[in-house]
Amino acid sequence: MRKPVFLCVDGILVKDRKILLLKRNVEPFKGYWHVVGGHVEETETLRDALKREFREETGLNISVGNLIGGRIEKSFDRVKIIAGLEVNQASGQIKCNHENTEFGWFESMPPESVFDYSKYFKSAV
């Protein structure tokens, strides 16, 4: 059976040598830490999708930098092609939406992370 393929984006926001992570409150990966990101809608660019996801998930307005990495994530029901983009600036106060229970700034990846984002982090520092 062919699995549907989705284009997604991850936002790498680093401040004072720490990366912003959110703790997921929904499946998949409920209870795990992840960067801000999500699916790219049909009419969006990668940058526009990341700006939307940041507003929805954190309330922050951002400016987006360069593509700093990518990966393919396969699950039981889908395949995701995920582009990692650098976040240059963020303004506003972080307010988690229903998809996340909390946020934190990390110098290294917590053990219960969705992915080893330190691969991106090194590119963004």
Could you provide a short overview of the structure?
With 125 residues, the protein is an alpha+beta fold. It contains two helices and seven strands, in the order E-E-E-E-H-E-E-E-H.
Helix content: 10-25%
Total E-strand runs: 7
The major pleated sheet works out as: 7 strands, mixed
Instruction: Report strand %.
Output: over 45%
Uncertain runs with pLDDT below 50, 5 residues or more?
none
**3D shape:** globular
Structural class by helix and strand composition: alpha+beta
Instruction: Average the pLDDT over all residues and give the rounded result.
Output: 93
Query: Helices and strands, in N-to-C order?
Result: EEEEHEEEH
Helix count, DSSP H or I runs of 4 or more residues: 2
